[in-house]
Amino acid sequence: MFVGIDVGTSVVKAAAFDRAGRQLAVEARPVGLHVRAGTVEQDMREVYAAVVDVLRVVTGRLGEPVELAGLTGQGDGVWLVDEAGRPVRPAISWMDGRTHELVDQWLADGTFEAVFRRTGSALFPGCPGPLLAWLDRHEPASLDRAAAAVCCKDMVFQRLTGAGRAVTDVSDASMPFLDPRTRRYDDGVVELLGLTRRRWLLPAIGDPIATGTAGGEGLPAGTRLANGPYDLPACALGAGVTAPGDGLLIVGTCLASLVATAEVDLGGEPAGLYISTDRPGHRLRAMPAMVGTAALDWVLATTGARHEELDALLAEAPPGSSGVRVLPYFAPSGERAPFVEPGLRAELLGVCLETRPAHLVRATCEGIGYAARHCLTAAGLTGTLAVCGGGTRSPAWTRLLADVLGRPLRVVEGEVGARGAVLAAAERHGVALDRAAWTEPARVVEPDPDRAAYYAKGYEEHLELLAGARQRARR
């Protein structure tokens, strides 16, 4: 039995797989987000207790020995821990917005672009750089008490193994301090962000990923464990996205577009990031957009429709939604990929008294599809495309996405991140697994040629509308 642990933002999961890659069992526990006045924090004790609980249940349910376990989880944010991996203060989530003014200042004074030109990482409010700089200015005592500033899965790994020091991996280190060419921290970036005196808080980088053995909490004592890539690259690995040019679209609360690449291009418009992986020379060009299923959730709630009605609503309105267009940039923080526009807001166009809820819903799904196409194009997609995430549970929306993107979609189901965590752990420990079998898609959805041609024109119109919206956002 192989176990993958995925420490998500709102749900912690453990999934068990057999040697052939069949998913045998999943256990999940919700964890809280404490939201107040633009801040989003989490209780590390609650998160760790949920990890131990789901592991205990999964391993007890199957009653078989665990050969190997892999760990993944949410990225970014700041999780300040002491020498034993225990919390110094509540974790600050990647969703946190307290550093908006600081990021705006860096956008204006050139720091933002200078960091991107060195690392290929476009800063956003919830990533470690701005958060550490904010803490250094407003809460220095917390940094003084900490032994390390890690990400979520790193805290869990240290606690499960009892490791004597904090360690991360190259994927979590990628934002924003890692030079993707050297796979080492860029001290010039640390200096640009005013954090030289806090440099010692950055954890050691396990390259390749760090390994250890469980101490007996959740997993049987002695179980081999690997501190794998965070959730985005873990999903890419679990979906079989490893060949240069191949991509993955995660249709979740936010859209995450990832394309495998061996190249690093630090030119162009600063946006997205390069995620280093456990294989030297292999990276993911990532465009993690703020737009996603949260936009659809808002439209469904506003129109009084239910998620269960989505497929029927999509069938009720024709392609193009009778002229209704939605620029689905509903996030209060604007957009961060494939461009950075903090002031951008959603726009609804072509609405009249004859507009029905189905038109708004379909136009929103189309708009999200156009945003995904924009991200994937910017990320350099040239090969196959896998999709996963909650949005793919709707067959009608998945077909619509295939049409809007104009390419076949390899739909990957199950706990894709946990699957990728196991594959990373197996490679690190020298355990031979059939990757093709582990990453086989559940189905392939082909685009309709006529609708794909229609949406190709719609995409160009989307880009024109977006250009106008970006100009208005800057006024």
UniProtKB/TrEMBL annotation:
Keyword set includes Transferase: yes
UniProt keyword Transferase, yes or no: yes
SUPFAM superfamilies from the UniProt entry: Actin-like ATPase domain
Any GO molecular function: kinase activity
Keywords linked to the UniProt accession: Kinase, Transferase
A Pfam family: FGGY_C
Domain spans labelled Carbohydrate kinase FGGY N-terminal: 1-205
Listed GO biological process terms: carbohydrate metabolic process
InterPro entries: ATPase_NBD, Carb_kinase_FGGY, FGGY_C, FGGY_Carb_Kinase, FGGY_N
Source species, domain of life: Bacteria
Residues of the Carbohydrate kinase FGGY C-terminal domain: 276-426
Family the entry assigns: Belongs to the FGGY kinase family.
PANTHER family: L-XYLULOSE_3-KETO-L-GULONATE KINASE (PTHR43095:SF3), SUGAR KINASE (PTHR43095)
Identification of the protein by name: Carbohydrate kinase
